[in-house]
Write a structure and sequence with these properties.
Length: about 130
């Protein structure tokens, strides 16, 4: 079932973290990336070097606020060159091919719980009403 927010089967959730990759073509070379988002089927990152579409990868995602890591295998599905901070990066989408899906669900649930708690705290902060401006 497609999400009403995007043309995808599962919603992507923005989450901070870093990712270490190894490709099956050169397993001794580690590539590091910045995590952009995560969904049930995969994730996307900003890479400083290009990995070709169709490349099989092994990865370890370290989530900053969750204090957990997700280790698995995937396949590069999308690569787009982009500019960030006046430098060239490659926005790269990875589809999971071998990962513990129950663990992915628990990470997504934890992300949503943290966001819900933050929204609840924000709604409970009392501010003085000064009337219309």
């Amino acid at each position: 079932m497609k999400s009403k927010f995007e043309n995808r089967a599962y919603i992507r959730y923005a989450v901070a973290g870093d990712v270490a990759f190894k490709t099956t073509k050169d397993p001794t070379h580690k590539i590091y990336a910045e995590l952009i988002d995560l969904s049930y089927l995969g994730f996307s990152v900003y890479l400083k070097e290009k990995i070709e579409e169709g490349t099989d990868v092994e990865f370890e995602i370290n989530f900053y606020v969750l204090y957990q890591s997700l280790i698995g295998k995937g396949k590069v599905q999308h690569v787009a060159e982009t500019q960030r901070y006046l430098k060239t990066y490659y926005r790269t989408g990875i589809e999971f091919t071998d990962v513990n899906k129950d663990f992915v669900l628990s990470i997504l649930n934890e992300i949503l719980a943290k966001r819900a708690n933050k929204a609840k705290e924000a709604s409970q902060n009392k501010t003085e009403y000064f009337g219309p401006i």
